[in-house]
């Protein structure tokens, strides 16, 4: 690692620490173990990260920084279509991406769930970031859906609606934590993605007409090409022009 520049060294240390934290938890993982896994000295770790907590936070930042698909989603204007895109991206992440890229993504999910069982610090980092960056545009799209007449009158239009949707979606990730899916009937994205998206949209209060509209292309995509990732949304205007 001696020839690596500073950013590459930081990345290598993060890559070594992440599976250790995910397997053993924050408290039980020592900087000595991290140094051994990264092939560096403890002194070098503290040169890049003043504390183990700072390394913990850097691991979290590595999970969210530079995500182009997320950036594109956040740039979408508030609308019912954007709301459906958020829900679809959320479900696809947990149902398709995790089992499709276990080696890379599984340690991140294990770290999150391990944090919930331990001190909760990593989980708090995740929730604070999502409250700041994801929840506001999600709720704005709920308001836009209400303005468009796509929500039932009793629909909850607050950050709690976002968290209920997110927690339902993230629970789908837990079935993939063991090598064999815990609930086999939920392991096939061709059926689970459209079913879960429709279920969450109904739970958010979308009227049945809107649910059908914004899940139609998703169902077609999953059925015709199960290996591909679904498009973010279907266009309401295009549907009306047919």
UniProtKB/TrEMBL annotation:
<dbReference type="InterPro" id="IPR050109">
    <property type="entry name" value="HTH-type_TetR-like_transc_reg"/>
</dbReference>
<keyword id="KW-0238">DNA-binding</keyword>
<feature type="DNA-binding region" description="H-T-H motif">
    <location>
        <begin position="30"/>
        <end position="49"/>
    </location>
</feature>
<protein>
    <submittedName>
        <fullName>Helix-turn-helix domain-containing protein</fullName>
    </submittedName>
</protein>
<dbReference type="InterPro" id="IPR001647">
    <property type="entry name" value="HTH_TetR"/>
</dbReference>
<dbReference type="Pfam" id="PF00440">
    <property type="entry name" value="TetR_N"/>
</dbReference>
<feature type="region of interest" description="Disordered">
    <location>
        <begin position="221"/>
        <end position="242"/>
    </location>
</feature>
<dbReference type="InterPro" id="IPR009057">
    <property type="entry name" value="Homeodomain-like_sf"/>
</dbReference>
<feature type="domain" description="HTH tetR-type">
    <location>
        <begin position="7"/>
        <end position="67"/>
    </location>
</feature>
<dbReference type="InterPro" id="IPR023772">
    <property type="entry name" value="DNA-bd_HTH_TetR-type_CS"/>
</dbReference>
